[in-house]
Structures are given as C-alpha cells and as structure tokens.
Design a protein that fits this description.
single chain; alpha+beta; 3-stranded antiparallel β-sheet; globular; about 40% helix
C-alpha cells in the first residue's frame, strides 16, 4: 500500500528531553492519505514515536512499520487537544496512515483498538 507519494521521508534526530528519548523532526513529515487528505508535521516537533509500554517492546517496539503513522498521530493528538475536538477522528487517521504506510491490517487493527481503549479509559473519548 505504501508508496513514495503517500509519505515524505522521516528525518529525525534522537534527543533527550527530561530523561526520555524523543525524535526531533528535521524536515516536515508530509502524509497524503489514500482518501485524498494531507497532513503535515512541522520541523522541530518532538515525538516519542509509538507510545507502547516497555513491557511490550519485545513484540511491539516503539518503531516499526507504523513509525511515520505514529508521528502523524502524536502531532494530530496535540492539535486535537488544543482545539478541544473529538479524539476518535485522530485515531482513525492513525489507522489509515498505518495501512497506507504498509502496516499489515491485523497489526494496524491491534494498535488502533489499543489506542482507542487507552483514550476511552483516560476519558479522552
């Protein structure tokens, strides 16, 4: 599913922020969805990639076939919170970006439902 027209290259520098590893975006990350939308993560944005509990890293690491989608999701969640908009559309964007990035359907679904569950449990909808 993934192609060069869907995502721009992800160029990051790994940095430490408050003792935690983060990726600082060095070139805008552009995602053109298969539905025709466009999303841009700006230069200097800090991401933690996929926010996966360390206990699960052996079979679901913070970086994988879903890395660019996770960066898009991190930024979209921040924008959604700032605007007070509903969370679910941002999580759907994440799922679609994972699929466009080439993440297998089963894995993208697992990650999507885990993200939705976490959002609901935290009262973020």
């Amino acid at each position: 599913m993934s192609n060069a027209r869907t995502f721009s290259p992800l160029i990051v520098e790994l940095v430490q922020v408050n003792g935690k590893s983060r990726g600082r975006i060095h070139r805008p990350l552009v995602y053109r969805s298969s539905e025709g939308g466009k999303y841009v993560v700006p230069v200097d944005y800090l991401t933690d990639f996929a926010s996966i509990p360390r206990l699960l890293w052996s079979f679901l690491p913070p970086m994988g076939s879903y890395t660019k989608a996770a960066v898009i999701h991190d930024h979209a969640v921040e924008m959604q919170r700032a605007k007070g908009e509903p969370r679910k559309p941002v999580d759907v964007l994440f799922y679609n970006a994972m699929r466009d990035e080439g993440t297998p359907r089963a894995l993208a679904s697992l990650i999507y439902y885990a993200v939705r569950f976490a959002a609901i449990v935290r009262g973020l909808g």
